[in-house]
Amino acid sequence: MKKFSLVIADQKESNKSILKALLKDYPNFEAIALAFDWQEAISISQTMQADVLFINNNLLPNSNALETLKAECPEFTQIVYLGDSEAQAIFAFEYDFADFILFPCDATRFEKCIQKLTNRLSHQPQLPLNNIQSLIEQLQEQEKTLIVKDAGKIKIIDCNDIIWIGGAGNYVELYLKNENRPVLHRETLSAMENKLTNLGFIRIHRSILVRKKYISELKPTDSGDYQVTLRNGHQLNLSRRYKSAMTGII
């Protein structure tokens, strides 16, 4: 069963909880991120290549924001517009959103929404990234190369350029040489650990992998852990649970 990624953007935590609860009956729709304002929702949809964006009217400053939302969200991202008034349904129609839901909604109405999404997602053209899946697989087989999908593009990253990796659920943040901002990659930290152990990466914390050769200093803390300083001056924490990774040094 094909899985679809989904972003929830809503001002109210109670609304987000309701949506997440409704989604439990549809395992092929996976909520990958929560957004707290409409511009963040666009950014996350672009970066994570979300299949679906649920966005509530309560996040939008005015109706003009809908035009920006439609223009800047990826073409392949289906938008479900949530509102508290039936009058707002006209906007969903004008911008060809996948659906409008008068919120909060019940399970029966939500099922109809999922059916609409499934129909649209099943019949839309394949993304260019999917069309060259065979190329991606070939590149991934090359030693020391990591393929990252980023905002409609494919980045080919030399693993020798990775200094450390931070875990964030089903995603990791890759901190690279000569890059000021981390690169987001959809893979778990455990999977990255299995893939990169033979390249000198070690786990120093439940959410941190670091390339051992980039460590320049270890400093014990009062709690029994260690402060790790990297060659670029960045500081991380080494949990006592992972001291064994530093056998021969500590």
UniProtKB/TrEMBL annotation:
<dbReference type="Pfam" id="PF04397">
    <property type="entry name" value="LytTR"/>
</dbReference>
<dbReference type="InterPro" id="IPR046947">
    <property type="entry name" value="LytR-like"/>
</dbReference>
<dbReference type="GO" id="GO:0000156">
    <property type="term" value="F:phosphorelay response regulator activity"/>
</dbReference>
<dbReference type="InterPro" id="IPR011006">
    <property type="entry name" value="CheY-like_superfamily"/>
</dbReference>
<dbReference type="InterPro" id="IPR007492">
    <property type="entry name" value="LytTR_DNA-bd_dom"/>
</dbReference>
<feature type="domain" description="Response regulatory">
    <location>
        <begin position="5"/>
        <end position="118"/>
    </location>
</feature>
<feature type="domain" description="HTH LytTR-type">
    <location>
        <begin position="146"/>
        <end position="242"/>
    </location>
</feature>
<dbReference type="InterPro" id="IPR001789">
    <property type="entry name" value="Sig_transdc_resp-reg_receiver"/>
</dbReference>
<protein>
    <submittedName>
        <fullName>LytTR family transcriptional regulator</fullName>
    </submittedName>
</protein>
<keyword id="KW-0902">Two-component regulatory system</keyword>
<dbReference type="GO" id="GO:0003677">
    <property type="term" value="F:DNA binding"/>
</dbReference>
